[in-house]
Amino acid sequence: MSDAGPILSVKDLCTYFSITRGVFRREVGVVKAVDEISFSIHKQETVALVGESGCGKSTTVRTILRAIRPTRGEIVFESKAGDLIDIPSVDEHEMRRVRQEIRMVFQDPFRSLNPRMTILDNVAEPLRNYNLGTAAERRDRVAELMSQVGLDANHLGRYPHAFSGGQRQRIGLARALALQPRIILADEPTSALDVSVQAQILNLMQSLQDQQEISYLFITHDLNVVRHFSDRSGVMYLGKIVEMAPTSKLFSKPGHPYTAALLAACPVSHPRLRGKRDRISGDVPDPANRPAGCPFHPRCKFAQDICKEEEPELIRRSSSPDRTVACHFSEELDLPGVEG
Amino acid sequence: MTPSGDTLLRVEDLHTHFPLRDGTVKAVDGVSFSLERQVTVGLVGESGCGKSIMAQSILQIQSWPGQIMAGSIHFNGNTGQLDLAAQSPKSKQLRQVRGKGIAYIHQEPMAALSLLHTVGSQILEAIHVHDRGIDKEKAADIAVEMLDRVGIPNARSRLDDYIFNFSGGMRQRVMIAMALVNRPQLLIADEPTTAVDVTIQAQILELLGELKDQLAMSVMIITHDLGVIAEMADEVMVMYLGKIVERGPVLEIFDNPKHPYTRALIESIPSGAHERGKLATVRGTVPDPFSRPSGCAFRDRCDHAIQGTCDTDVPALVNVAPDHEVRCFLHSGKIEDE
Fold first, then answer.
1. pLDDT tens-digit profile of B207-227?
2. What span, in angstroms and rounded, lies between the C-alpha atoms of B168 and B156?
3. Of B142, B165, B181, the domain-final residue
4. Environment class of residue B253 by beta-carbon count within 10 Å: exposed (0-12), middle (13-18) or buried (19+)?
5. In 3D, which of B189, B251, B242 has the Cα closest to residue B218?
6. Do B269 and A284 touch (CB under 8 A)?
7. Dist. CA A182–CA A102, nearest whole Å
8. Domain count of chain B?
9. Does the distance separating the beta carbons of A199 and B270 come in below 8 Å?
């Protein structure tokens, strides 16, 4: 981490989708997929966004790359040249530059590579898009990238089907690295992999970060991975960040009942730790029909009347200034964390 | 470990092969184990290790052209002993066991249930298959009772809903209810929580544990997630390339794993214990089923492989403790010093 400002800062970001009906596409509702979230990423830092499906974590990633236009809010990116770029407002030409420095790694290694293109073409595609180098130079660069991600550079002529899931995810990483990005947005990069292969990919991502000073925005639902991998973590629920804190603090002492519930739901790492823990009941509500007040109150066992009426703001905890929590009772609750 | 002590299922030297154009895939290659009543056994392994095919072979519902080539599967159900491997896949005997003696739940409820039929009609069908004479009202009562039990609110009114009207966690509950309406003695759950979120996973695992006790059944849970095993299983079987490489009580497996593969699987779970340190990994990937290494199938990825032994001979499953078996040369003939 550097002492300079963040290289990506997201402020009050909202991405809403309207639900329309009929020939005139009358708006009948709105899904607040991402609702006023703020966070920042520093150089060589890993920030994780955790949450269950439908909480808006993938939408956040897409909005950062402007695959989806945000409804409002700021996404300020500091480019390598030192310019500050506000992603929602810049033109396409400028956005192309941004996309050179913010790259993405996808969840499904079977669908994120083009099956009709060789590995050389797949990995070199970003270089071709940006007209970088001659064909021979690109080939050398791809060979170099392949060895960086631990694959045999002699396999460039093969097609994706000849590789296993873990190898494909390495290829996906090589493709993301081709343009020497500042930030890699990784959307569940290991959730399709076996645990032994997941460990290989996480180790690789860490050593790449150390060598090339990359920052990661890491999206996952697996808290074990978060705990191992990220410096700071935000917990999302129904489009909101409900808690953001350094990862170790988040695990040792969660500040939001939902964080505590996620931790309690995690399978134990050893059969001796088995036992009754507080499970939360119910499912995530329909995002189009969000509960009034605190979005978590129907599942929260600490909910009081105020939680049903007033939505808590994400505020800095007076006791620990590096933690923000959106809960009316965060200062009073003493929630169990995980040891270790 | 078991209250009743008698064996519900005994699989001996099971081989399920897939004769393909490019060669034969030995998906299940000599698996033997036995399962007691009211025990939860966890079957772990990476994708492609044959764990699902092994479980499907028990009911002979493995996909074409998979075929049981050798071995026996003795099921000691309510209707007496039966060797399931000796029955033809379409036989009456096997069809009576499917669903009633042994039920199977899939990973993905949306793929396993019909989108065109109501949940009620699908559950009623499952009841009707095993009890032709049952009248509709009574069958509906059984369905409602089971839906209640798995925690579906307003069960009676939900009989007329379709599977897409349910949320992810509720769909998995419907699957479980449907599997249990005929009160099977063994429930095989194939990755029952891989497709759901972690809070839902916790609910489903807890539910399976409760139902197992209430209905006095055995559960075989198939997973690649050792966390699920740590949470649920009484016994563990670790599979690698069609063979069981280690088997034992869950505490023994976690406290005292013997096979290098089991150890690596346990160590590769990320946790706070090794923050930012390197995770242990298993080198390489599961080998191609057509070019399986000679000798011990794991030797290519093993840090302890012994030249001249592991590459020539196939290790046998040996006891390292009572109830704890491992298939590795490092532990063969070492029973006394453990």
1. 999 999 999 999 999 998 898
2. 19
3. B181
4. buried
5. B189
6. no
7. 6
8. 2
9. yes
